[in-house]
């Protein structure tokens, strides 16, 4: 009886451990398949499109003061949207993308109190998301759609400024 119980326990352990072994990485003796042999054409580390994507990513997540000191095109765009010096307009934002998106929302919706009112909601004490700020300052607007639209506009601005 003990022997059959032991065999049953070992067999059960093997059955339940098989998925664990199947998930381990196994060496591929033939090398990678040809379709997985690196980035697609034009997307390698030295390509212009890869540098552009990296520049946009770095720029949109960079601190406003760092980005604005190196990129006069985006600074000019922010000044046009807000009517303020770009450094002043973007102070308090975590990254340049947030600043540009807020500037677009203020302009698109003609927010009461303008960019400054929106900035105060998004960066001040008790800061809220851009969508929540839109809900509070322009209750008749579709906050989710407007935030999405402004983020897209900001992304396009940053793409153009980095190229």
Features:
163 residues, mainly alpha, 67% helix, 0% strand
Quick structural summary:
With 163 residues, the chain is mostly helical. Helices cover 67% and strands 0% of the residues.
Write up what this structure looks like.
The chain is an all-alpha fold and 163 residues long. The protein has nine helices and no strands. The relative contact order is 0.10.
Number-wise, the strands total 0
Strand content is under 5%
Order of helical and strand elements? HHHHHHHHH
- Span of the ends, CA to CA: 77 Å
Mean pLDDT: 77
Number of helices: 9
- Main sheet: strands, sense, barrel: none
Overall radius of gyration: 26 Å
User: Which regions have little confidence, pLDDT < 50, spanning 5+ residues?
Assistant: 31-57
Helix content: 55-70%
From the spread of the alpha carbons, the general shape counts as: elongated
Q: Class by helix and strand content?
A: mainly alpha
- Give the oligomer, counting copies of the same chain as homo and different chains as hetero: single chain
